[in-house]
Each structure stands twice: as C-alpha cells, then as structure tokens.
C-alpha cells in the first residue's frame, strides 16, 4: 500500500485513503485497507480480453493460446483480476465508502465486464473504475466522483529548462554548427526553397 501519488491528489480532512499498485490479490490487502474511506486498487481484465484488445489477436489466430498463456503468467505474478478485487472488498469487515479499480484499460465494454465481475462478490457497495481526469472529492459528509474539464486545445506544459539551463548542461543537438543547434544542417543547401519574402512580404 502506498501514499497517494501525484495523479491522485487528496485534500486531507482526516480521510482514510489507500492506493495499491501492481499487486497480486494478497490477503494482506484486506487487512491493510479495512475501514478506509476510499480504496483505490489496481485490477486487470482477463488475459483473453487483454490480448484481444491490445493486439487484435482472436481465438482463431495460431498465436492466440500462446499469447494468452504468456499474459496469464504476467497477471498471476503481479495483478489482481476483477473478480478477485470484488472478493477482497467482500472480505473487508468495514467496507470502504468508495472502491476504485485503477490501472485498468477503461472502455465502455471493459468497465461493464469489470463491474459485473466485482459485483459477483460485492454487489451492493459503491464501486467505480478510474478513467482519465477522474476527480474524487471526499469529505466526512459525502463522496463525489467527477471528471475534470480541461481544454482540448491548450498548450503543452511549460518547460523552462530549455532557456534556464546552462548550454553546457544540455546535449549537443544532432544537427549543430559549432555546438549550437542548426536545423538547416540536415537540409540540402541547393534545394529550391520558397523564401519567406514570397509569402510574407514586408
């Protein structure tokens, strides 16, 4: 179990959070997470669904059985199947107010199957599957699960390193002249380039 990392930001109000990462379905999880307000636990799809979604390989493909078996070994070593997550939740003496399945390929069909598998053992409590930009507001009075609204057209994150760092700290660019970046170095100097003056007359 871990503290909440950067992408899960918690405003503390004497609220109990637990986050697990890639982890098999150990009994210690239920002992360490009993009675928390929010339990965020890694879970995975079945090996078959994972293979089909990520590779496009289907049961008719000659490589299918081998691929599924290989991925099942990965799951068995370090992941929790959806139904096992439900079983862990079922085992808690004091259930979490909200359980969140995370590190999961969240799409409409995978979420639907995941909730069905979780609810086999844990049919009545509050469970959700994490998706990009999820925001969870937790107070003693209530828990809200929402999605952050961000611009579809915003600039990239600022990177002041390129102007603040000493040039000696930075790697010499692949295309350079006397150690200074020279994007023209990769071009044919004899190429028939349209001059800026042609399309941007002063």
What report would you give on this structure?
The chain is α/β, with parallel strands linked by helices and 202 residues long. The protein is built from 7 helices and 8 strands; from the N terminus they run E-H-E-H-H-H-E-H-E-E-E-H-E-E-H. The strands form 3 sheets. Strands 1-2-3-4 form a 4-stranded parallel sheet, covered by helices on one side. Strand 3 (98-102), helix 5 and strand 4 form a beta-alpha-beta unit. Helix 2 (47-55) packs across helix 3 and helix 4 (82-91) packs parallel to helix 5. The longest helix is centred in the middle third of the chain and has 15 residues, at 64-78. 20% of the residues are buried.
Give short descriptive properties of this protein.
single chain; 202 residues; alpha/beta; Metallo-beta-lactamase, Chain A; two-stranded antiparallel sheet; 8 strands; disordered N terminus
What's the SSE pattern?
Answer: EHEHHHEHEEEHEEH
The CATH superfamily of the domain at 17-147 is known as Ribonuclease Z/Hydroxyacylglutathione hydrolase-like
- The gyration radius over C-alpha positions equals 25 Å
Counted beta strands: 8
> What kind of oligomer do you see?
single chain
Largest sheet: 4 strands, parallel
Q: What's the pLDDT, averaged over the residues?
A: 80
Strand content: 5-15%
Reported by name, the CATH topology of the domain at 17-147 is: Metallo-beta-lactamase, Chain A
> SS-based structural class?
alpha/beta
* Spatial strand sequence of the major β-sheet: 1-2-3-4
Give the fraction of residues assigned to helices. 25-40%
Spans of at least 5 consecutive residues with low confidence = 1-10
Shape category: elongated
How many DSSP helices? 7
CATH architecture tag of the domain at 17-147: 4-Layer Sandwich
CATH class of the domain at 17-147: Alpha Beta
> Distance between the terminal alpha carbons, to the nearest Å?
63 Å
């Amino acid at each position: 179990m871990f503290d909440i990392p950067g992408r899960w930001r918690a405003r503390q109000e004497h609220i109990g959070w637990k986050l697990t990462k890639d982890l098999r379905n150990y009994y210690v999880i239920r002992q360490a997470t009993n009675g928390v307000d929010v339990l965020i636990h890694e879970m995975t799809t079945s090996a078959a669904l994972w293979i089909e979604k990520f590779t496009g390989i289907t049961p008719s493909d000659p490589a299918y059985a081998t691929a599924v078996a290989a991925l099942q070994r990965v799951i068995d070593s370090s992941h929790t199947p959806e139904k096992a997550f439900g079983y862990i939740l079922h085992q808690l003496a004091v259930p979490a107010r909200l359980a969140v399945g995370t590190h999961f390929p969240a799409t409409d069909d995978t979420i639907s199957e995941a909730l069905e598998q979780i609810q086999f053992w844990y049919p009545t409590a509050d469970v959700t599957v994490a998706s990009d930009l999820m925001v969870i507001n937790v107070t003693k009075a209530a828990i809200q699960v929402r999605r952050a609204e961000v611009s579809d057209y915003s600039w990239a994150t600022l990177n002041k390193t390129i102007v603040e760092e000493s040039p000696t700290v930075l790697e010499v660019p692949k295309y350079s002249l006397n150690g200074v970046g020279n994007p023209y170095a990769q071009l044919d100097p004899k190429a028939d380039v349209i001059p800026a003056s042609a399309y941007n007359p002063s």
